[in-house]
Design brief:
Elements: H1 2-15, E1 19-22, H2 29-40, E2 43-48, E3 60-64, E4 67-71, H3 74-84, E5 89-94, H4 104-113, E6 115-116, E7 119-120, E8 124-129, H5 143-146, E9 150-153, H6 158-167, H7 182-202, H8 223-238, H9 243-254, H10 257-268, H11 273-278, H12 287-303, H13 307-321, H14 325-344, H15 354-360, H16 367-371
Parallel strand pairs: 1-8, 1-9, 2-5, 5-8
Antiparallel strand pairs: 3-4, 6-7
Helix pairs in contact: 1-8, 1-9, 7-8, 7-12, 8-9, 9-10, 12-13, 12-14, 13-14, 13-15
Length: about 375
Amino acid sequence: MFKKNIQALYTSLVADIPVLLWGPPGTGKTASVSYIASKLGWHLEVLVGATRDRTDFGGFPRYTSEGTVLDPFPWLRRILEAKERGRESVLFLDELTSTPEDVRPALLRVINERMAGDTPIPARIVSAANPEEHAVGGLLLEAPIANRVLHLPWEMRPQEFVQALREGFETLYPPIPPTPGPEALEHAQAEARELLALFLERNPGAAYQMPRDDQASRAWPSYRTWYLAAKYLGTARALNMDEETQALGVVGLVGQTGYAFLAFIRDLDLPHPADVLRNPTLVPSRDDRAYATLQAVITWTATNWTRENWLAAQRVLSYVGETKPDIAAPAASRLIRIYAEAREKRKPTWDFDTAFVNTFRPVLERIKEVVR
């Protein structure tokens, strides 16, 4: 379980999603954040919420001829200096539930807007909290804060601690996979958003369910957290994380409803995109499975950008578009956007297939603009 937590935490950092580690004292939360930051070569800045007041997250007022400005405090200056040296940073907010109530509005701005006073915070956000029963002066998180973070239950099992004692604590940490490039991440996240749209289209009641009890201080589904869940899922897939790690993040953002979304994806049982590119008849006949397959084909084509894949993707879309134009049209639209982006970035591009243009001309008029 500990290794899966590390993988979920790393995925959240790559996706740039604020994460909150929930766990009792002494279970390796701070050590794990330090480990990942060290492995990545990132600067780590640690703030303990219980020892801060609201000015720490707002800035130090300084009066000038043009008015009052808020100068960054030392913790933010260190992050800014790291950026100047070309280093990424992690801002670790410890003991979040022990943060005084009057400090939380300023803290919310740090988490949500990445701002402290007048200064942007160029850092990923990780926070940690002991359960309310273990926290000193612990308070429930307000729903606006809870609905902006990924809630990750944190634990170290006794047998894992025994292993660390005998073999060294470094054996608890899994290998850190290399970070995918920005384009690969974006394509994987776009596919995840399409899968989420397909799920919510069939389950609209799952889109927004704000709890009326203490559960509002944990993970629950809102439009914001569903968007973040798709971002996390796409990132996890781009990193080749397994289903358990994918579930930790999705459920950590939208709560138990996330299991239904993941089961929906699993039940689609999609063919591999590379096989579909070679043989369009492998596209499933059921509409939802066909839709998801085509989205996967477009993601594969975008991340494996060759003339062969470009032409094959058009053949697949034309094949499906002959009988199910409404199912194929969204994937065709994505392919066109990817083509336009490739031209803007001066990547290799090739002609559109005549059959593709003819198939989607009535549905996608902007093909004319892209071809021109």
